[in-house]
What we know:
By secondary structure, the protein is an alpha+beta fold. The protein is built from six helices and ten strands. The chain has helices at residues 2-35, 41-44, 110-125, 229-243, 247-256, 273-283; strands spanning 48-51, 54-58, 142-146, 160-167, 178-179, 182-187, 197-200, 226-227, 258-259, 270-272. The chain has a five-stranded mixed β-sheet, with no helix packed on it. The chain has a three-stranded antiparallel β-sheet with strand order 8-10-9. A two-stranded antiparallel sheet has the order 1-2. The termini are far apart.
Amino acid sequence: MTMSILRQHWAALRALLVFTVVLGVAYPVLIWLIAQTPFLSAKANGSILTVDGKPLGSSLIGQSFTEADGTPLPQYFQSRPSAAGYDPMATSASNLGPESIVDTADKPSLLTQVCTRSRVVGDLDGVDGRRPYCTGGGVGAVLSVFGPRDVSGAVVHPTRVISVNEPCDTHPTPFLDAYRGVRVQCAAAGEDYSAGQLVPVRGAAPDQPPVPADAVTSSGSGLDPHISPAYAELQVDRVAAARSLTPEQVRDVVAAHTEGRTLGFLGEPRVNVLELNLALDLLA
Length: 284
């Protein structure tokens, strides 16, 4: 009985040693050697882009092109917004969806984030940054309407109307004077307006805003290194002026760094922001 147990343990030990050598040493070394072949080595090592031997970033990971305080550098194309702060160790999405329209004390709603970003991009690149359901101040144009309701839950006769995303200390004058004959009030600090009916107000913004969607929303990873050709085109004049180039010169560089759909039909055309900005630096 004792010898049988010893033989079983010895067989198990040998199997452990064999699999450790094969799967723990030989297989990883083989994969590493394959990854270091000329065709794969750049991607396997992180797709790092360098200038004069100095690594400046990865073509696979988005990064910011701003001052320390977050002010965009005018000579650079700006990346897509990041919910992860462009931190590869904190890749994440905002986890906010279409129903996120009311700001909270510690976090703006997705609607307000989109409105604020659109206004900032519009001011930076000299276009109309207005969007539907946004106030002129760059927050979600959402009212909380109080009053008797019908069977569907809609308020029939408003008695009180609050602009929920406009606190009185920062927006003493709401974006709308009156709603259905009732004066609109700003939101008082600490008040809960969830009992009212939430009513987004579209406003007079164009149906197709000049600021594209990828300029105001982050990707699922928060690290998307690309922007759409439309967002790149929006930034051409500003970058050209900051670099004392003609818009045509900048457009040529953009075109050279615009990638088509993967395999011709997957995804959308895109522009790698880091590669584009480095090419412009080399051009200068």
